[in-house]
Amino acid sequence: MNLCHRLIDFEKDRDYILERHCRINYACDTSWAREKSYADYRMEWFSLKGQISEFYGYLQETAQDSRSIAEIIETEDGRNLGYLWATFSEDKESGFRFAEIQEIYIEEEFRRQGIATQLYEYAEEKARKNGAKVIRAGTGVCNSVSIQLHEALGYAPYRYEFEKLL
User: Fold this and answer.
1) What is the dihedral of CA 94, 70, 46, 54, to 10 degrees?
2) pTM score, two decimals?
3) pLDDT at res. 126
């Protein structure tokens, strides 16, 4: 499938991005957070105006860096296939450069067609061209589909985080 990339239009694409971000959050959240239905999770998340503003502001801020990727992926006829957001960071003291895939979302009807793999390869190539030594991507511990994809693409865990319900 031929993928068409376009920059995110932060006014036009706002609702699309926020909805997909919420879906990603739900899929990657802990099992106790996903005990509620997606509809309830979504309603709660969209009520958190500060969190929405912080997320969207950070996305817009990072998109200003020409090394970052903030793109809507479309079919040739203009239908949304998903989106890709990847950032680029450099440690000022050591000079260590890395890219990080913040979010990748593929619409359900287009999944299992190799599109995510193409987008990872695209992000990796852009990271290489910009001098990154590594590329990172994260997912939730319960998101087995995403974990399997990362492993199949050669990604390995580099950090573990823990939580305990109180």
Assistant:
1) 40
2) 0.92
3) 96
